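Today's session is about reading a structure prediction critically. Students often jump straight to the picture, but the first step is always the sequence itself: look for stretches that repeat, for charged clusters, for runs of hydrophobic residues. Only then move on to the predicted structure, which in these notes is written as discrete structure tokens rather than atom positions. Here is the chain we will use throughout the hour.
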Amino acid sequence: QLQASGGGMVQPGGSLRLSCAASGFTFSRHWLSWARQAPGKDFEWVSTIDSVGKSTFYSDSVKGRFTISRDNAKKTVYLQMNNLKPEDTAVYYCAASIATIYPTRPAEYNYWGQGTQVTVSS
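Below is the predicted structure for this chain, in token form.
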């Protein structure tokens, strides 16, 4: 299972770091992603990292502001979010996939976290 944490309310321009701790599966073999869902908006993949942490992918909307990383020893994936904007407000989910190549569809993910709310507002 996955347990996400670190959400909260922050002013525009601020920062937050999300964490997602894993248990019950071989973390080091899984690709990991962060995705978000805002009211009235489409589900959006935010960022993905491969199983060894060498390749990372970002949506255009967060590129240059967000950084994904993982610690396989701690079985945790992180999302450092800087220069947050009101449009980043959403529930953020972490997900894990055993896929051998870059997984882009929700059906490719085996595990999902419960979501953590991020609100960016002045």
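Discussion point for the tutorial: DSSP finds no helices and eleven strands in the chain.
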